[in-house]
Amino acid sequence: MELATIRSIIIGTISITALAACGGGGGAPPYQGLYPAPTSRVSQHVKHNDVNTCATSPPQYYWIFEGACQAIEINSSGANYSLDEYRYRTVSGSIGKNSLSGTVQFDVVDAVGNGDIEHYNGMDFPHFSPYSSGNTVIYVAVINQSKQDAEFIDSGVPVFSVTVTDANGFPAKRCGLAILTTDRSGSPSWDALYNVDNYVNDNTVTISWYDTPRYSEWPSHVPVYFAVYCPYEY
Question: Whole-model pTM?
Answer without folding.
Answer: 0.82
